[in-house]
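To: structure subgroup
Subject: Chain for Friday's discussion

All,

I'm putting the inputs and outputs inline so they're searchable in the archive.
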Amino acid sequence: MNGVFDTRAGTTYDDEIVSKYHFPDRYLSAALDCLGSWILYREPRRNGGRSGYVAVAKVIAVEPDPARPGYSYARMEGYLEFDAVVPLEGPDGPFEERLRAVEPTRRGAALQGRSIRTISSADFGAIVRRGLDATLAPINARRLELDPIHVDQPTRNLLEAPPPDQARRIEQVLVNRRIRDAAFRRQVIDAYDGRCCVTGLRLINGGGKAEAQAAHIQAVADGGPDVVRNGIALSATVHWLFDRHLISLTDDLGLLVAHNRIPRELSSLFGRQMERIILPRDPAYHPHPVYVRRHRERFAG
């Protein structure tokens, strides 16, 4: 069954929600109900949370915490953050069926003690579709490379379906690599304001598409997630070098270059970024040290 997992910063739980969710065993039965299914992450308002559904992931295992009796882990894959926070309520009321039958003043209390809970597939699909609204919007197809030139026919069929049909087929959307890449691209390019973090160039064409590309730091094939902190914005040539580990990053986010393996005429691309690449203004989007280290382990310098 689909589910909702509440998450918030500043707790004592050993969470890393991209890959694991830590919880007390009073929720074990509900977590097992979600095993093998997709779930929503929701941040409550308390402790500075964003008060809504923020991401989706799939539960692939539930296992006891060997170091803390009475607690367990849900192991996750396929994490994808939404384009924007989806509030608890839409135009027609709460998204979750259990809240639609509760008086508005009692809805917060109705979620107390339900940090892990199941949700109907219809409600799940409606929330995820709302969360990916910007990615799936036809107006953004060109800049996200979801236009007919870039997608195959099955993907095109998904994209051209009305939103209610997309919601009913939401698991197909979530595993579609083209759509996931588009969501990742939008998040990374927006975080870097369309600017290559190495060359400093910011070129936007008439359709609003940035010349810069979204590069995974730890490759998807190596287990890297589709999250902004596992991405950087790079121009096409620099992206090619980065994917082949001919350039990489230091812990201080300076540039490492395999000069002996790169043509000399490309050296002008790197400018002053040997000291530090150009980073997003928001530190929350800076490359995560774990993904940087994993990329550097394969650096060819």
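Points worth raising on Friday:
The two ends are 48 Å apart (CA to CA).
The mean pLDDT is 91.

D.
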